[in-house]
């Protein structure tokens, strides 16, 4: 069966990427069954983020520092993001978020793609980060969480003990750079269209429909936006 391949560059630590994931899923559900194949691509918002949690700082304080805004402005942004997430069925608990390096989590997602459970693992890691306050640079946590979503925890532990898929993560990020992608989520539709940001379901569905009509036949994939310097819906 012909499929429209959708490549989504996103980071687990990006709240608008989580919202965008929900909206894409709703848009895909409006398409004929089996018409769309989604591939989750790697994009780190902060490649230099520490792997170990640092001294306790509120999400609002980190946001204010990053964008040089007041604490009140940061809290207003968080309130808005929380309400938007809730409208899409997400519980965004910024009081629990533990910012950390996501490079290893992206490596796990490449393994998940090979094993045919990438969507499930992506969902589990994002919920763990934004709702449950898990530290996603922790190897034990990554093995446990990805195991809950269909991967073999022992295989994940072996992966994390080495550098498997490190080149794949960097290749995704290099491709994003070459395409001019500086903020996520970014949806590449069949190689003919690109949609940036957590757009409404209607917009994404319209783009999927148009891309389906215009994109060349493709094979199935192998088994608002957040930017490095600025985030927006």
Structure keywords:
single chain, 233 residues, alpha+beta, Glutaredoxin, 4-stranded mixed sheet, 3-stranded antiparallel sheet, 7 strands, globular
Number of helices in the DSSP assignment: 9
Strand order of the largest sheet: 2-1-4-5
Percent of sequence in beta strands:
5-15%
User: What does the average pLDDT come to?
Assistant: 92
Poorly predicted sequence stretches spanning 5 or more consecutive residues: 219-223, 229-233
Describe the largest sheet. 4 strands, mixed
Measured on Cα atoms, how large is the radius of gyration? 17 Å
- CATH fold-level topology: Glutaredoxin
N-end to C-end Cα span: 34 Å
Alpha-beta content class: alpha+beta
What is the CATH architecture term? 3-Layer(aba) Sandwich
Helix content: 40-55%
Describe this protein's structure.
With about 230 residues, the chain is an alpha+beta fold. The protein has a single domain (about 5-230), classed as Glutaredoxin. The chain is built from nine helices and seven strands. The chain has helices at about 15-30, 60-65, 70-85, 105-115, 120-130, 140-150, 155-160, 165-180, 200-215; strands at about 5-10, 35-40, 185, 185-190, 195, 225, 230. The strands form two sheets. A four-stranded mixed sheet has the order 2-1-4-5. Helix 1 (about 15-30) packs across helix 9, helix 2 (about 60-65) crosses helix 3 (about 70-85) and helix 4 packs antiparallel against helix 5 (about 120-130).
């Amino acid at each position: 069966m012909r499929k429209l391949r959708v490549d989504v560059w996103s980071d687990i630590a990006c709240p608008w990427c989580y919202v965008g994931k929900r909206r894409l899923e709703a848009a895909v559900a409006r398409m004929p069954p089996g018409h769309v194949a989604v591939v989750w691509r790697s994009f780190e918002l902060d490649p230099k983020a520490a792997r170990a949690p640092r001294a306790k700082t509120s999400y609002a304080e980190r946001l204010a520092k990053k964008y040089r805004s007041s604490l009140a402005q940061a809290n207003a942004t968080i309130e808005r993001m929380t309400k938007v997430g809730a409208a899409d069925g997400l519980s965004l608990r910024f009081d629990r978020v533990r910012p950390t390096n996501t490079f290893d989590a992206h490596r796990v997602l490449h393994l998940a793609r090979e094993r045919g459970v990438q969507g499930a693992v992506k969902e589990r890691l994002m919920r763990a980060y934004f709702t449950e306050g898990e530290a996603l640079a922790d190897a034990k946590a990554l093995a446990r969480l990805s195991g809950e979503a269909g991967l073999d925890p022992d295989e994940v532990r072996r992966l994390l003990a080495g550098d498997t898929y490190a080149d794949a993560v960097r290749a995704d990020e290099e491709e994003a750079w070459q395409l001019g992608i500086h903020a996520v989520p970014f949806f590449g539709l069949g190689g003919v269209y690109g949609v940036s940001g957590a757009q409404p379901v209607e917009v994404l569905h319209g783009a999927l429909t148009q891309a389906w009509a215009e994109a060349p036949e493709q094979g199935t994939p192998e088994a608002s936006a957040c930017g490095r310097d600025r985030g927006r819906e």
